[in-house]
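Subgroup meeting minutes
Present: P.N., E.W., G.H.
Scribe: E.W.

1. P.N. recapped why we're keeping a running log of single-chain structure predictions: easier to compare across weeks, and new members can see raw inputs and outputs side by side.
2. G.H. added today's entry (280 aa).
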Amino acid sequence: MKALEEGYLKVAGKIEEVFQKGFCLDSKVLHYIDSTFSNPSATEIEELLTGESDFEKETLLKLIFSPDESTRILLEESFEEDNPGEEEQIRAYFSTKRIRTKIRFPDERGTREIILPPRVIDEFVSHLNISKRLGEKLTKAIGVISCEKRRVFTKVKLKDAGKAFSEKTVDFFTLFFEKLGEEKDDFNECFDLVLEVLCEAGNDADIYSALLCKKAASYQSLLCSERFEEQLQKNNIETLLMQGVRPVSIDKDAVMRKMEIIDRICLAVFGKTTYYEKYL
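Output recorded in log:
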């Protein structure tokens, strides 16, 4: 019992260290602030965050103080080292604390300190998925990944998927991690695409077929893009619009890369794939 208490206190302490270190605004958050609030000064942003509650304030608080991927991975590592207990224990720990944090601007606006509202801390803790368990079989499957950072990254992604995986899906993950878990170059790409397909297809779907459907859709988007480019060489955009032709704009390289990644997954896990002659 004492070990469990010490574990969640260690985890709470590491979360508190994140708050004390502060939050650096990335370019997306800064763009949102400047475009929404007309390039406010650091003082004006501080007043906005500490003023009366409204929708814009709540949105801004969530943007600034949501744990990013690197923070999630850092804290998930501590979950492996120490028993984090349950989310409610962590919430109770912070309910008695007055947490001061820093907001760092990547420009001349410098740094500002504010006291974190309790609801922001609660929101931050909830995003950590502390109480979410992946199950013994899936955890064992992830265990074949020898690189600690990658293993923890995988756990974070699976928790963030926000769904319970079927036995069939866990069996797929077991093969996926065995075949691709040690790849240095494209594991993250493969894993992100797998999660995207699984979340779209559902637990009862045939995973191989779902991957090929994603590839077929990518192939069709390439054909549509090429067809539109051919039409554009013969007619101007205004004429095409009047004819009811819808503009097609895609990143061809990204789409073709997605098709390559699908082939990579299918060949590694299922030993087969489907090719399209035009893009062999």
